[in-house]
Amino acid sequence: MSVKLKLISIVLLYFGLNNFLYAENVHVAVASNFSTTMKLLKISFEGITGHRVTISSASTGKLFAQIVHGAPYDLFFSADSARADLLVKKGLADKSSVYAQGQLMYVAKDIEQKKCRASLRNKPTGRLAMANPKTAPYGFAAREVLINLGRWDALRQNIVMGENILQTFQFISTGSAAAGFLAQSIVINSGELGGYCQWRVPDNLYQPIKQKMTLLNRSDNNIAVQAFFRYMNSKIANKIIKESGYIVN
């Protein structure tokens, strides 16, 4: 057997899928901030294994509620740790693990890069966009930042909240909001914020956004689901996630 064939066999054996004839489907529920990255992972995983991946994306809070009420997902990719761990406590999943750590960025239109952070101290001249803190972890982090900077009370009347981070991005990219807080992955992958200053918010201004994935109990016996869970810890997946703007331990 050639070296190339041996490598292919090892990869397929690792994922428990050395026969494409038994391809199955994996239905993943993905927090909005990670949806673009998940599309890249889907292409990679399907190419390696022959299995198919269906993606459903929404805010972490909405997906969590859907799962609790019986939505037929196999894997849940939360934008935080709390809701993933809560599914384990509720007996709906038996394991969870961190797959990425998100980073928060502040962007503002028509502001010099060197004045980006300082613009938060100025009197607001337009809307400030952020995701809803009640359902979206990046929104929760944005509120923490404003509170820690002593700007929450001064700016809260100018805040427009998106249902999730993608809607928040739409508010900013369409000009409905002059500034806002986004996931760094959105800023990196969008390519639509050339006229905006960008400030990566220091980690000490908000709690770490450790994003966890859970394998739901209903899918314990699905070999494709098990394979995808393992794939997420592979070097291939980690490289894709890092290049999308996340920290991977």
Amino- and carboxy-terminal Cα gap: 35 Å
Q: What's the order of the H and E elements?
A: HEHEHEHEEEHHEHEHEEHH
Provide the helix percentage.
Answer: 25-40%
Structural class: alpha/beta
Major sheet attributes: 5 strands, mixed
Q: Taking strands numbered 1, 2, ... along the chain, how are they ordered across the largest sheet?
A: 2-1-3-10-4
- Fold-level CATH name of the largest domain: D-Maltodextrin-Binding Protein, domain 2
- Total number of helical segments? 10
Give the count of structural domains.
Answer: 2
Question: pLDDT under 50 segments (min length 5)?
Answer: 17-21
Radius of gyration: 20 Å
Give a nutshell description of this structure.
The protein is α/β, with parallel strands linked by helices and 249 residues long. It has helices at residues 3-14, 35-49, 60-68, 82-89, 137-148, 152-155, 165-173, 184-190, 223-231, 235-243, and strands spanning 25-31, 52-58, 75-77, 93-102, 104-109, 128-131, 159-162, 179-183, 196-200, 209-216.
